[in-house]
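Deliverable D2.4 — example input (structure tokens):
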């Protein structure tokens, strides 16, 4: 099960970049370093 994370990216309808951007967001946020990056910008929960 995925942890709840709220974010949005706006792309034009039919954008050829949608799948690639979605895959990259998943790759980055599933990396073990993501918690450190998020904490640096948003603070620790």
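Example output (designed residues):
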């Amino acid at each position: 099960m995925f942890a709840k994370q709220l974010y949005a990216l706006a792309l034009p309808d039919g954008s050829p970049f949608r799948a690639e951007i979605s895959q990259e967001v998943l790759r980055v946020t599933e990396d073990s370093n993501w918690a450190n990056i998020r904490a640096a910008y948003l603070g620790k929960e």
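The mean pLDDT is 86.
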